[in-house]
Write a structure and sequence with these properties.
Elements lengths: L3 E6 L3 H11 L5 E7 L2 H10 L4 E5 L7 H11 L4 E6 L4 H10 L3 E4 L4 H12 L4 E2 L1 H16 L3
Parallel strand pairs: 1-2, 1-3, 3-4, 4-5, 5-6
């Protein structure tokens, strides 16, 4: 099985350390780089080829949405998997519009993260259950609006 090379972009050390710990148990995933803000993530993508960028949305200096836009300009092949504690439909749409292939809510199980990383690395769109629910509610709200 080919290893999936991941750039982990997260500004909170405790979250970053937790993600590294839960992902190291999967033989098919290797954390090849770490960044604490969007600028650093963009810089690392210029230097190294990654398969997946696990991108926090709320970052200092350059947020995950802008960093995703910049990264996709540099390397359109790299896949972006976004994650955040606070997800609303607008942020979800902004990340997808920026080029993210998947979105998970922080705190999901390690199995969800592994499944999401594997899915986006294979070119599949991945939205965790909570993200699906948020998108579904937004779509329903739009459909119920009078013309």
């Amino acid at each position: 099985m080919e290893k999936i090379r991941v750039l982990l972009v997260e500004d909170r050390d405790v979250v970053k350390d937790s993600l590294k710990l839960i992902l190291q148990k999967y033989d098919n995933i290797i954390i090849e780089g770490e960044a604490s803000d969007g600028w650093e993530a963009v810089s690392l993508v210029k230097q190294t080829d990654y398969d997946v960028v696990l991108m926090d949305i709320n970052l200092p200096n350059m947020d995950g949405i802008q960093a995703t836009i910049e990264i996709k300009k540099i390397n359109p092949i790299v896949e972006i998997l976004a994650h955040s504690f606070f997800l609303n439909s607008e942020r979800i749409y902004d990340m997808i519009d920026a080029g993210a292939k998947g979105i998970v809510k922080k705190g999901e199980s390690s199995a969800v993260y592994e499944e999401a990383i594997r899915a986006v690395a294979n070119g599949t769109i991945y939205l965790s259950d909570e993200v699906h629910y948020s998108v579904y509610e937004k779509v329903l709200g739009c459909l119920k609006q009078p013309a």
